[in-house]
Amino acid sequence: MEVLAAVVGGALVAGLVAVGVRLRRRRDAALAAAYSAPEPEEDQDRSTLLGQVLSGSVDLLAGTVSGALRTLVQVAGAREDDGVVTLLFCDIEGSTRLNVELGDDRWAEVLRVHEHVSSEVVAQHRGRIVKTAGDGFMAVFRDPAAAVRAAVGLQEALAANPRIGVPLPARIGVHCGEVVGRGGDFYGTEVVRAARIADRAKGTETLVSEAVVDHAGDIDGVAFQPAGRVRLKGLPGRQPLRRVVLQTGRSRPKGTRRS
User: Fold this and answer.
1) How far is CA 73 from the centre of its chain?
2) Is the pLDDT of residue 101 over 60?
3) CA distance 245 to 222
4) Is 60 exceeded by the pLDDT of residue 97?
5) Cα-flanking dihedrals φ and ψ of residue 208, to 5°?
6) Sign of the alpha-carbon dihedral angle for 152, 254, 138, 143
7) Mode of pairing for the β-strands spanning 128-133 and 136-141
8) N- to C-terminal Cα distance for the chain?
C-alpha cells in the first residue's frame, strides 16, 4: 500500500504541475490579447474580459483535475485486484434442455434478461460481474458475507422472476482466496477452486468453501450446512464444502425478497 500511495501521490503532483503550466500560459495569452485589443464596446469593459479569462481557467482546472482523479481511481482499483477476494460462479442447470424446449430466439431473450437481473443483484451487494459465458458468469466481491447474500438473492431472482418467465435453477459456488488480477480479470488456483465448487452444486443449490464460512461470520437468516468432503476436478485432496440454507424464523439476509 505504501508503494501505491507513493505512485498515486506522485501522479497527482505531476498532474497539478502540468495544470498550473497550462493555466499560466492561457492567462498570459488572454491578458495580452485583452490589453492589446481596441477599446471594447461600452457594454463590455476589460473587467468583463478578465472575468471570462478567469472563468475559462477555472473550467480548465476542474476538467483537468477531474480527469486526473478518474485515472488515479482506475489505477488504484486495478492494483487492488491482487490479493484476497471472494469469487462467485453461477450457471444454469439443464440449460441445453431449456434451450431446446424454448427455441433459440426465446432462449436468447431469456439469457439477456438473466444477465440483466444477475447484474442487478450482484451490484446490489457491492460486487461486479467479471465475465460471462453463455448462461454462466463469474463475479467478484471484497466482502464474503456480501457474496453469500448475493448468492441467496440470485437463487430467488432466477428461480421465480416474471421478467425471465421461466424458472432457472442456478448452481452457485462461492470461495475466497488470494488471486492475481490482470486487465479486470482474475487468475490463479483459487479461481479454479471456486469454479469447481460451483460444478459440484445442483440446481437451486449454493455451495461454499470453509474459507467463506470462516471469513463471512454470522449472517442473519443464513446457515451453513455440512455438504461433505469432495474431490474437486484438477485439485489435490478432498475439500470440505458447506451448503447455504435459509433459516426459518429469523430475519432474511438484507437485499433478498420473500417468495
Assistant:
1) 14
2) yes
3) 6
4) yes
5) -130, 160
6) negative
7) antiparallel
8) 44
Please say if the pLDDT value at position 204 is more than 70: yes
132: closest CA among 146, 147, 117? 117
Contact call for residues 245 and 223 (beta carbons, < 8 A): yes
Quick one: CA torsion of 211, 217, 223, 225, rounded to 10 degrees? 30
Q: By the 8 A CB rule, do 208 and 148 touch? A: yes
Query: Which residue pairs from 56-61 have beta carbons closer than 8 angstroms and sit at least 24 positions apart in sequence?
Result: 56/26, 56/30, 57/23, 57/26, 57/27, 60/19, 60/22, 60/23, 60/26, 61/19, 61/23
For β-strands 170-182 and 205-209, DSSP reports them as parallel
Residue 44: strand, helix, or coil: coil
Cβ(139)–Cβ(127) below 8 Å: yes
Written as one letter, the residue type at 171 is R
Which three cell numbers mark 161? 422472476
pLDDT digit string, tens, across residues 15-50: 554 545 565 666 666 556 655 655 555 445 555 544
Q: Give the lowest-confidence range in 79-83, 194-198, 204-208.
A: 79-83
With CA atoms as reference, report the closest residue to 150 among 254, 73, 226: 254
Angle at 132 between CA 197 and CA 151, to 5 degrees: 45
CA distance 90 to 168: 11
Cell of 114: 438473466
Cα torsion for 80, 82, 86, 90, to the nearest 10°?
100
Quick check: 147 and 127 in contact, CB under 8 A? yes
Please state whether the predicted TM-score (pTM) of the whole model is above 0.70.
no
Q: Collapsing DSSP states into helix, strand and coil, what is residue 243?
A: strand
pLDDT top residue among 216 and 26: 216
Q: How far apart are CA 119 and CA 139, in angstroms?
A: 9
